[in-house]
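Re: the pair you flagged

First of the two:
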Amino acid sequence: MMNMFRLVGDLSHVLAVFVLLAKIWKTKSAAGISGKSQILFSMVYLTRYLDLFFSFVSLYNTVMKILFIAASCATVYLIYVRFKATYDGNHDTFRIELAIIPSLVLAFIFHYNMSILELCWSFSIFLEAVAILPQLFMVTKTGEAENITSHYLFALGSYRGLYLLNWVYRYYTEGHFDPIAISAGVVQTVLYCDFFYLYVTKVLQGRKLQVLP
């Protein structure tokens, strides 16, 4: 069921996606963007939204699924094909198998049934929780991030934080409780906490985000 927290969370997620795409397209550069994080996000949406071909929930739901799949794949294309020469692969060194393999293992341990769609959904939930790690690792390694990249990360983190409030709201109003999604969402939000602090204390005051070694 739709509520204010989910709606604003979805809008924050859409904003993050378009901020990143606009940044890459406008500057004709993928500098400062982790291609590996974008690959992981593409895997998240492609595995989570397989039900797009088998079920219909609502027009809103369908449009959002198509948007996230298309936008994530387009971002990967821009980074690795269109603007490949500008991609900073030397700093994008996080080993994504360290995110993929544990997520796959957790999906086989924690799920609601053993169907392919359910296992893919569980995998996507766990993978999304850590998909931002290559980008955060890259920011730490370079020691700084462009303000527009910081806005992208803040919007993405806000989306997950708002979804936590959505789950709390649904628990008290509907009795709905999803331990898999909530536990992964808490982990994902915690990963953004340090970045949120730097964003509020530096970027919102007009300074460039810099990470101390």
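Second of the two:
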Amino acid sequence: MASLIQKIARQARTTFKNCGSSPIGENSKGFLENHTQLRNLLHEIRAEDLNIAPRKLDPSPISVPHNPPVTYMHICETGAFSMGVFLLKSGSAIPLHDHPEMNGMLKVLYGKVSISCFDKLDNPPDAASEAQFNPPVQSYQKNGLRRSILRSVGEYTQHSGPCILTPKKDNLHQINAVDGPAAFLDILAPPYDQDDGRDCHYYKVLENGDVKLETGEQKEMWLMEIPQPTDFWCGAEPYPGPQVTL
């Protein structure tokens, strides 16, 4: 009998098989049915299914390159999707970043994470010039400004359903480990590919960065593209779970 992670990989391949070559109609009946099946399978996955034991608090300081704040276990990758596990140390975060023209699913395996999700908005002409920032933004930085909507801030555990992103909705997010180490299974479709216009970009919030959202409330904000933060990098470690073949 196929392992659960093998079933997830096969369903991800079926769901996203055309997303690298043509736009996916989010309202397409076939895509929505496959997407729902994949989401249901992800809801079942647990750390023990991948032979991953929840990590304990690590008192050793984060250092380059021996003790990164985040590590990644690669499971599989095709032209249609990639799948792996991110492991976050206590107090660490994956900074605010985007997924250009990509779909994604994130399922917590252990611990708790807080996820802040944003949508990009179109920039009206001269919008960045008219906006007031504190501290002021230099003229050379204005090309990196993006209007956005902070759509939601939520906490996820192993008992939560998957966090979903699409090319247009919740496409930017920041992920923070809460109250200890955490890990999540991550599916991206299609995978990042700089040569195909899908490079990862990082951002910082310029206004109201400490906003607290009430349920259902959304907040328009300005983001500025920045280099990868110096306090974030991702190490690698071997995947210990069942083999996946496609």
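The helical segments are 4-16, 29-44, 127-130.

-B.
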